[in-house]
Amino acid sequence: MYRWAPPVMALSTTTTVRAAVLAGTGPAVLSGLAVADDFGSGRLRRVPSSGIGLRRGLRACWLGPRTPPAGPVRDLVTHVTSHPRATVPPPDPHRPPAGSTHVRETGCVPGPRIMQN
C-alpha cells in the first residue's frame, strides 16, 4: 500500500513547477505538452503510472463581469458547460471568497473534470 507524501511546496504556474523539478526539488505531475521539449532532450523523464486517477478542474477566466464577453470566450464557455460529461468540481479552498475584489473584477466558470491516464 502506498502513502501520500506531503507536498514539498505549492506553486501556482506550470512554468514554476517545471523549473522546480529541473532544479531537483522533487517530482511533479505536468501536462506532456508543457514538458515535451524536456522529454525530447532528456532533461526530464516520464514515469509510467496507472490506477492513480489524477484529475484536474479547468476554469475559464476573463476580466469583467460574471457573464462571459460575446465572441470566442462566450462560445468556449457555452460549449464546455453544455458538454454532457461536464461536472462542476468542488469549491477551491484557495479561491477568494465571494464579494472580494478579485471575484468582482473577473468572471470564472468551472469547467469539466478531466481524467488523466
TrEMBL record:
It comes from Microbispora cellulosiformans. This is LysR substrate-binding domain-containing protein. Keywords: Signal. The lineage of its organism: Bacteria, Bacillati, Actinomycetota, Actinomycetes, Streptosporangiales. Residues 1-19 form the signal peptide. Residues 81-117 are annotated as: Disordered. Residues 7-81 form the LysR substrate-binding domain. Pfam families: LysR_substrate (PF03466). It comes from the Bacteria.
